[in-house]
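quick one before i forget lol
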Amino acid sequence: MFKRILFLTTLALLLLTGCQAMPAPTPATETAAAGDAAPLVLAAHDSFVVSEDVLAAFEAETGITVQYLALGDAGAALNKIILSKDAPLADVFFGVDNTFLSRALDADIFAPYESPALAAIPDELELDPEHRLLPVDYGFINLNADATWFADHDLALPTTLEDLADPAYAGLLVVQNPATSSPGLAFLLATIGHFGEDGYLDFWQALRDNDVLVTDGWSEAYFEHFTVGSAGAGDRPLVVSYTTSPPADVLYATDGRTEPASVNINPPDGTFRQIEFVGILA
């Protein structure tokens, strides 16, 4: 338990400025051994990214190595953690966000821990008064568009959620399943907020009629179907993703580009603030 608490305290301090998941997940890796102690197993969603410098700083301060266990998209990862509660797969789980927070807490799988690092975190980000899940970062989920594709097809970018159901944009949008994906659930909640509980189902029926594509997770939507993330292999120039995706497109580009190929679209009520949490598995 001590190494789990130490990990949360140190990680929260190191990531206080934010380590929002960005579209270039790296394979699960284990850091070089820093001693004879068993590694601390960190389970997370597939899109979790943390720099080698952060891990090296943690190891240098604690002498504990970290093993990363990727468990799929956020919703799928949480389901695996819940189903394995009697034989935990890891020591710590990162990736519960505010859309899945109630499900995670209701499962009673996290040990409370009031980290001293919470003193430096705004109260508005602390959503669990019992401190079973501690906030690590926040970002914004919205629509990303392939600006070049729209220019080449002489089609204006959509500016409202209603535009997405316009026949002019038929077959252009890919979203994620809200049952398994946190961006997908965030987008669903945004549409409920915009259209209301009496109107959002009609909007989603209109999206279905307009040939929206629904994938299980963010990685599939972004890297396989979005025209930018798939390097042109996909056929969907609109995707639900993050406001950080366009700069990440430049950061991880291998062609030397200095400008992003994608742009953010922020329709009224179409952007959702996502807060991500980390917790000690009980």
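fyi The chain has two domains: 2-138+275-281, 140-274.
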